[in-house]
Amino acid sequence: MRAFSYERAKTPADAAKAVAGTQGAKFIAGGTNLLDLMKLEVETPTHLVDVQDIGLDKVEKTDDGGLRIGALVSNTALAAHERVRRDYGVLTRAIVSGASGQLRNKATTGGNLLQRTRCPYFYDTNMACNKRQPGSGCAAIDGFSRPLGVIGTSDACIATYPGDMAVALRVLDATVETVKPDGSTRSIAIGDFHRLPGDKPQQDNVLERGELITYVTLPKPLGGRHVYHKVRDRASYAFALVSVAAVVQKDGSARFAFGGLAPRPWRVDAAEAALGSGVQAAAAKALEGARPTEQNKFKLTLAERTLAAVLVEGGR
Ligand SMILES: Cc1cc2nc3c(=O)[nH]c(=O)nc-3n(C[C@H](O)[C@H](O)[C@H](O)COP(=O)(O)OP(=O)(O)OC[C@H]3O[C@@H](n4cnc5c(N)ncnc54)[C@H](O)[C@@H]3O)c2cc1C
Ligand code: SF4
Prior knowledge:
With 316 residues, the protein is of the alpha+beta class. The chain has helices at 12-21, 34-39, 75-80, 82-87, 89-96, 101-106, 109-113, 165-171, 190-193, 269-273, 279-286, 298-313; strands at 5-8, 25-28, 47-50, 59-61, 67-70, 175-179, 185-189, 212-218, 225-231, 242-248, 254-259.
């Protein structure tokens, strides 16, 4: 691990200013992803700004009946929150399918959204990886690509976004709230938050330098039945090969998003509209334009089957 300096910020504004003011600085929250990456020298921050003391650790009701989740709320607290379990069950189910109890106790809402890909070559500093070292190439494209992306990928990077929580947030139409170093704030729809790689795979999301996530806001509850299925190589403590988050209504309509397939949670409006023509038609619409490798083309069939299972569980 490389040497770095460290400070604990007292307010969100101070934290944003501190990161913007020091070249190579990063926020640290639970540290469950960043510290692993620092030990491997995949991430080499020169300065860490710890945000654990800045507040933002509550889940509150909004005026329109939704929920405002502080960026420092732990994954455990969020999954167990009474309103989340009752009104946003897909979120609880997605969170508890991830990591382990100990990790979820430390992991935060903001940090979870920003966790980095699990592409094995990203973690191996001896291998070419455009995401870790722009312009170095992509060892995965002609290498071991079984767990990697089938859609939304580019010639520069075929990695997936690995998280579970964000797949549920995508179905719930969450908004990510931020504060910038100049004190201004902005709201980013979850569907616009994670970037597709294009020719800049090193940029996972649309945050600017020093921009801090403060809250994630959920609109008022949707009703319906909430389901999350995660298919993986081990029964626990593993990332999704394919996952599906869905909210199924009594009239048979449904919202659904996939994890494990793309560089961001993958939700396609036209696929939801195509459900009236059957699961196969809906899955085909969601996966239109897919470019799998020989090793991961099984994910296309797996995605359709997982969607079918989720819809049955949702009562459709
Ligand atoms: C063994 C293992 C298994 C795992 N399995 C799963 C799994 O199955 N599913 C799953 O979804 N996840 C899984 N995870 C990932 C885990 O969920 C994340 O590591 C965790 O959610 C990250 O949160 P954190 O608070 O620890 O982030 P940190 O590690 O502190 O930070 C992560 C990144 O976010 C930035 N950051 C943190 N907070 C903010 C903020 N408020 N604003 C702006 N930037 C910020 C940091 O600078 C850093 O770049 C696993 C992790 C491990 C180690
Ligand atoms: S798929 Fe992306 S993360 Fe993996 S080696 Fe290629 S560039 Fe790196």
